[in-house]
Description:
single chain, mainly alpha, 14 helices, globular
Amino acid sequence: MNIIQTIQKELKRQADPTVKKSALRWFKEPIKLYGVKTPEVRRMSQEFYREVQDLSKNELFDICEKLMQSGMQEEFVIASAWAFRRRKEFNETDFDRFEAWVDQYVSNWAMCDDFCTKSLGYLLLDFPALVPKIKLWTKSKNQWVQRACTVSLIIPVRNKQNIDDVFDVAFDLLECPEDMVQKGYGWMLKEATKHYQDEVFKFVMKYKSHMPRTALRYAIEKMPKRLKKDTMIK
C-alpha cells in the first residue's frame, strides 16, 4: 500500500458524518470531504510526513498533486502542508506548478486560503519578481484564482513588501461581483493597514463609492473608530 492509499484509508476510518455535516455549513458551493476534524488532519499530516521526508522536493510535489487530484478537502490540506514544509527549497520555477494547482484543484475559499497564505505567499515573499504574474490573475474567470491573487499578497505585505501591487490588485477587483473575491481583497487591504494605514485609508476614501460593502467592512476592520466613521459616510 502506497502513502496515498494509506492516507485515504486512515481518513475513511476516522470519517465522522456529524463533522462532515457541520463543516458543510461553512461553504456555499458543494465540497468533497470525509468529515475529519482539521486538528486531526494536521496531526495525520505530521505523522505521515515522516514517510516522505527523504524524497526530493519534486518527488514530494508529485505526491502532493495526486492528493489534490482527489478533490477531497482533507487530502488537499495534507498536500498543502507538505508543500509548505519545503518552503526553504522553493525557487522561481515552482511558480508554474503552484499556478496550475490553484487553477485546477482549488475549489473553495478554505483550499485557497490554506495554500495561498502559506506556500504561494512565501514564494512571492522570497521571489518578488513573480508578483506581476500573480497580478494577471485578476483577469481570470475563475473566482478562486481571483481570490488567490489577493490572499497570496498577504504574506508579502505583512513583511512590508508590495504595497503598490496590493492597491493595483484591489483596484482591478474593485467591483467584482463575487463575494469571496470581495472578502479576499478586503482582507488583503486589512492586512496592509498594519504598516500602511494612511495609504489604505486614502485608497478606501477614494474608491469607497465603488467598493461593495463586504470589501469595505473587511478593509477598515482594524482602523481606529474615527477613520471607520469617515469611510462609512456616503
